[in-house]
Amino acid sequence: MVQVSTGIAYDCDVLVVGGGIVGLSTAYAITRSAPGTRVVVLEKEAGPARHQTGRNSGVIHSGIYYRPGSLKAQYAARGAAEMVKFCAEYGIAHAVTGKLIVATERSELPRLHGLVQRGRENGIPVRELGAAQIAEYEPEVEGLAAIHVGTTGVCDFVGVARQLAEASGAEIRYGAEVRRIDRRPELGVAVLTDAGDVVRARVLVNCAGLHCDEVARLTGDEPGMRIVPFRGEYYSLARPELVRGLVYPVPDPAFPFLGVHLTRGIDGGVHIGPNAVPALAREGYDWGTVRPRELAATLAWPGSWQIARRHWRYGTGELRRSVSRRAFTTAVRRLLPAVTTDDLVPSAAGVRAQAVLRDGTLVDDFLIREGARAVHVLNAPSPAATASLPIGREVARRALETLRSA
C-alpha cells in the first residue's frame, strides 16, 4: 500500500500523470504562471507524445466545427494562433496552409452552409466557393461547393511536446507507469510507479489520455464516464502531387469524427484518413492487438452498447473501410476521383480516447473535473493538440488554485 505519512517531505508541489502534449503544456503553464513551483511529470513511455499527440494527422485546426461558446470553440481558435506563434518562436516545423471543406452531394449543402455560419459565430474567416472555384486551390478535387478556411495549418506536434518539456523546467520521468495512488485530502497524494518508486506531491493532475478514467478511479474519484477507444486508420498517398493542402468532407454532426480527409504534412507527404473503428485495446493500433481486461471493461460499460445500438449503420461502414482497401478508396474518391487503390500505402494508425457517458452520449467538449487534491482531464481528443496551450493554462489555473487552498 502506498501511503502519505505526516511530516513527509514532498517530492514536488504538482505531479502530472501523462507526458502527452496536454500534460506537458500543463507543466509548462504551471511553471510560467507560478515560478518556483516544483513539477514532476510521469510518463510511462520512453519519450513524450507516443500516443494521441504523435499519432494524428498533425493538423492545426481552425475551430470552425465546434459549438459556439464551447471549450473546443474557444480554445481551438485561440490555440491555433498560439501554436503557430510557438512553433515560429522555437523553430518547430509548421505551415499555415488553409483547408477546403467540400460538399460532394446535394444533401451536404445545408450542412456546409451551417459551417459558414458557425465559422462566423466563432470569429473564423471563411470563403465560400462554387464548384468551378475549387480548382483554384485543389485542381484534382471535385465537389458541388466548398468553403476555404485560411487559418488551418499543420505542424510537428511531437516537436512541440518536446519543446514544452524542455521549456517547462519540470522534472520529466519517462518509463514511469503509475500503479497505485494513495490520496489523503488533508495531506496530499503518493504515487507508486511500476519501477517501485514513490512520488509524493501536494496536488495531482491527471492528463493520462487513453487511461485518464483509470487514473481518476485510482485516485478515488468516480469520473462518471469511460474511455471507449476508437482506432483511426491512415494511408499515405503514393502520388502526393494530387493534393496541394488539406481537403475535408462535410462532417456528420451526429458524430465527433471529421471523416476521411487528405492532409499534406510538413514533410510533403499526404496522409489519408482516419476512419473510426472500435479498438480492442486502449492502445490497440491494429486488429491483432487485443487486451482482454481492457476489452471486457469497455463491453461492461452500458454506454458502449448504447453507441452500438444507435450508430450501427455508421459503424458498419467504418468497419468495411477498415477491412477493405477498395472500400476505403471509394470513400476517398468522393473527394479525389483520380485516386486508385494502388495509390494507398498503409500508414501508422492512431487511437482516439473518446469519453462516453453511461447513457451512450459521446462527450463532445473538452471535459475537466476536480477532486480533492486532484484535477482530471477526462476528454481531450482532437482538437486538443491544437488547443493544448490554452488547455494547459486552464488546467494549471485549477491545479494552482487547489495547491493554494491545500
Keywords:
406 residues, alpha+beta, eight-stranded mixed beta sheet, 22 strands, 32% helix, globular, disordered N terminus
Helix-strand layout with pairing:
Blueprint: E1 12-17, H1 21-33, E2 39-43, E3 59-60, H2 71-90, E4 94-96, E5 99-103, H3 109-121, E6 126-130, H4 134-137, E7 145-149, E8 153-155, H5 157-168, E9 171-174, E10 178-184, E11 188-193, E12 198-206, H6 212-219, E13 225-232, E14 235-237, E15 246-249, E16 261-264, E17 270-273, E18 277-278, H7 292-300, H8 302-323, H9 325-333, E19 344-346, E20 350-357, E21 367-371, E22 374-379, H10 388-405
Q: What do these coordinates show?
A:
The radius of gyration is 21 Å and the shape is globular. It is of the alpha+beta class and about 400 residues long. Strands 1, 2, 9, 10, 11, 12, 21 and 22 form an 8-stranded mixed β-sheet that branches. Strands 6-7-5-15-16-17-14-19 form an 8-stranded mixed β-sheet, with helices on both faces. A 3-stranded antiparallel β-sheet has the order 3-8-4. A hairpin with a 2-residue loop joins strand 21 (about 365-370) and strand 22. The protein contains 10 helices and 22 strands. The protein has helices at about 20-35, 70-90, 110-120, 135, 155-170, 210-220, 290-300, 300-325, 325-335, 390-405, and strands at about 10-15, 40-45, 60, 95, 100-105, 125-130, 145-150, 155, 170-175, 180-185, 190-195, 200-205, 225-230, 235, 245-250, 260-265, 270-275, 275-280, 345, 350-355, 365-370, 375-380.
